[in-house]
Amino acid sequence: MEPVSLRAEAGIGWITIDNPPVNALSHGVCAGLADAVERAAADREIKVIVLRGAGRVWSAGADVRDLDTAPSPLPALCAKLAGLETPVIAALHGSVLGGALELALCARLRIAAPGTQLGFPDVSLGLLPGAGGTQRLPRLIGAKAALGMMLSGLPVNAERAEAMGLVDAVIEGDLDAMATRLAEAHIDGTAPLPTWEERAARPEPGEWLSAIEAARSGLGRARLPAPVRIIDCVEAALLLPEAEGHVFEATAFAELAATPESVGLRHAFLAELRAAHAPGGAAPRALAEIGLVGTGAGAAPLAAGLLSAGMRVTMIEGDSETLADAMSEVAILHDRAVESGRLTPAAREEEWARIDGSVDLRELERCDLVLIEDADGAVEVGRLLAALDRVIRPEAVRAVLLAGGEIGALAGASAHPGAVIGLRMAAEGGRLAEVVGGPETAAEAIATGLAFLRKLGRMAVAVPGGGAIGAALMGALITAADSAVAAGASPYDVDRALAAWGFARGPYQQADLAGLDPKGWLGAVLVAAGRTGHAEGKGVYSYGAGQRMGHEDDEVLALIAAAREAQGIVARPVGMKEIQTRALAALANAGARLVEAGEVARPSDIDAVAIAGIGFPRWRGGPICAADQAGPLAVRSELRRFAAGGDDFWTPAALWDELVKYGRHLGDRAG
Predict the structure, then answer these.
(1) What is the pLDDT of residue 615?
(2) Distance CA 183, CA 33 (A)
(3) Cross-referenced Pfam families, in alphabetical order (predicted)?
(4) Which one of 156, 397, 416, 431 is separated from 5 by 20 to 30 angstroms, measured CA to CA?
């Protein structure tokens, strides 16, 4: 079936995009649209064109992967559509994002179904709307509103878009029927469709320039180039003739696409997209009802998140009192959501109708996935898994929230080990989650675990080898940081250096929040002195009551100096560049070892985990992407330089030799 079709009926040319799952505007789809537009324009019987999308999504925009292949045909397509004498109506629904919204901007009229989401997320990829969006949008809705949409990257709903003038009408009911009536009114002359020139706003230069100035002031010291260039292009829309404005935009887009920041952001986007799919392409099982069995303090947030995602939830506890407390916690979370405006009272009642509680496991018989915790040990988990076998369907997924056990050993307690998975989830507020399979775990169960975690808003990754990927990367980062501190840096120097490089938090700030590990060099020194981390009020940093961010402490520096002296280490100056190099080399080497060991499905999963789990700067793409940009030869050389000090931690993984020998990169293995 062709991804674009043209159907002529009663003077109306219906052009439909049908490229599941999200009607992405790939090069092939753009070529099909260009052909359909040309045929419709040449057909004298067609007086109005209606542009529509099949399925749940009108179009999610251009395919990011096409940016690395050939120049996009979308700008030429948009120019063709905007220049047609035959008027175009865009009938929008679902999501209309990026290049898709640029396409819709070229129509004479835009109607939308209620709840339609319209936006320009290009900035999140280090780009700007490059098919005329920076020129047409401000001319339609004004510079201030246009800048707000493009700089934030956030979508607006159809109702807000109508108020802005981006959408002409929000249509309850049949969208195609309304498009037909509008087209017929134009054809019979009762209500001719306006031209683009008639629709364009008449800018007041002072207001336009004020919006530009305010946007530039709001950027401050921008780290990324895309927001700066978006503002430049909106300014060009005022100062340059329209044709020259489009040339200015095209040049800015090409320059941004070549920046390492955009390369990193696009890589991160695709890494997360790949991570969402189970190895082998297995499809998830349907998820409608979820059971939570004794999941501790995290039960209430889990239940609330699942209810928000439309699931039905059954909570099981060992006694009525604990169950009542858990249900009460969910109710408190609901009340807070209503008070903050995140949930309406009616929505709260609807969600509350989908939660049940019991002390009887038999209430789980309809569940598609049941989550249990292994905090009480392998024996208790085994007992629960065996009990679940007598209640839930054989294919229902048994998900064990891992606290330390190995899922392979735990799964053996079930008569259906193929349906048993392990989950590692970051603490509340964290995004990372890992799905662990045992030797007999079915691919469909892994896929279902990934889908379950995505419903909770987690960045989930499958871990076929069973190891803890996030923990391995964090361990490598702390070891690299410790090596810099032992050599002469302060831990505060380390955190400042990596924050300057782009990390969301320094490694020692993260370590304090998690609790210091006494197995590390600095952790051993500080834990022995009673400094265990944030929970105790002092770790690498010291904390006042209720403070999440700590302050530097001279006692820590004195303890470090004493430890160096005891070990015969003569401190030397360690600069910011060396600290950053050590961190990247350590993370890249840890990633290479994980790839060698088969712990990840694809190297790009390491990047997705690093961004979500240890605060690696998204715009650098992740440690594998950053290492590939630096080059395997350069990374291996740095590792060998650090390893010359005699620490086996820095020994390069054997994989680097293979990559250097054959001129390849780690990312070449990404599937």
Answers:
(1) 94
(2) 20
(3) 3HCDH, 3HCDH_N, ECH_1
(4) 156
